[in-house]
Give the backbone structure.
Amino acid sequence: MSVGSQPPQTDSVFTAETVVITHEDVDRAHDRVRVSAARARRGFFSNARLLWLLVGPGVLVMLGENDGPSMLSYAATGAKFGVGFFIPFVILTFCMAIVVQEMTVRLGAATHRGHAELIFDRFGPFWGWFSMIDLAIGNFLTLITEFIAIRAGLGFFGVPPWLAVLIALAILYAALMSHRYWTWERITLAAAAFNLVFIPVALMTHPHWHAVGRSLITWQPLPGFNKDTLLIVLADIGATVTPWMLFFQQSATVDKGLTTKDIRFGRIDTVLGAALATAAAVATILATAPLFAHQMTAGNFQAGEFAEALQPLIGRFGASLFALGMVEAGIVASITISTSSAYAFGEVTHKPHSLNLPMGQGKSFYSVLTLCAVAAAAIVLIPGLPLVYVVLLVNVVAVLAMPPALVFLFMLVNDKEIMGDLVSPAWANVLSTGVVLVLTLAGVLFGISVIAPNVFAVLGGK
Amino acid sequence: MARDKENNRVLLNVSAQTSDNSWVLSSLEHDQLVRAKKHHIPRRRLKGAELVVLWGLRIYLFFMMAVVFYQIWTAAR
């Protein structure tokens, strides 16, 4: 493997006379030829084209994480607390996400290996399986919530649950049909762009910009320190940093074929994705803030219920946009999360794992991807299941599972043997250690709030 | 070759298609090739402090998941 920024080593195995070239290699080489051609030219338009060619995993992972439960968390935040502390707080959580996700870009570009594969190879199967079980449970629970969001969002338009789920699966399958990473990425990016639909919805509610500006500067008004606030804090953190994001962005970086030369654009991609996702998240808080002003109890609303509650304030069109935003959030996340599961499965089992694989060559990859989505969709259709608890707690579970996942990432990205000169600088290590500590502290506080809620009363909360 | 067939991969005939191979090889870094990824990255030995952190976080996660299940159980009741 190449180490860090060192040039690839010449290996006699990989000469034109002996090498085995796969379909996946040829597709990836096509993408790289376009990147090389764009890089060879100078000027603004060439740089813009290079950005267009290299952007993808970062935007997808950030907008993918603005998923069903995340948007519900933001909507519940706005409805419960209005404009205030949580606006700058959500921006801060996306800054945390940038710190974390940038490391996966470097890892993927330097090693050309997926995250699951690196954990298994460097730390052995014992720790590897632990992290895979965390990922599999988290991904499956999250996938269920995506289909709940899709069902509820389309339910606003009178679409029956079975049809809503079928539509989502059909879109997921359509994105895969090209058997080409590039095409899959562009289709999913186009779908993810609809996440920004929450911005016009927010504008329709005529936000108090003065209050928004004040909250950005002062973080005021502060919420009361109690169990409900803590749950929303955890849900909002879990809405921006989750284990599947680490696995997905690294694997997508590898599948896209990014190299160490592309890291700068990988960072731009990540920051751009975070900026777009932050805009959509803040817009969702602003969109539901009027429910707080009207004293509506909306903490446990589902996607369709938020849209219905907003209808008297922003009209049928605005409410429809909100419901469609929820559907989009669920669909894009179901695509990216099931893909992250399939990547991880392939990396661990050493089966072919790429979106460049034809169906015949990537049977196991596409089977895992499809099975994850179909199983989650089927569970949503079972009547009487208490799915509301899954929705409420899935982001909390993500926050709890994040510190162990981050420590693996931290160790890998500081591993000089595989990263060479691209190991994290000291400031990045301080920031990422801070993120681990914040997430662990949030988890501990959540545990205390459940086990000993009276402690909060002693500290002045309710 | 048998393994390659098993994986349903395409082995290009070298003498006939060297030029075809060459453009792929010149476009990709060597360790980006699927073939190169069959080589495992050597395992590293975890230090004592690293093991303590990993085990600590594992116990933390088990404990917190139990808390989550407890919360679901109490909410369901």
Remarks:
- Helices of chain B lie at 2-6, 14-27, 48-76.
- Chain B is about 60% helix and 0% strand.
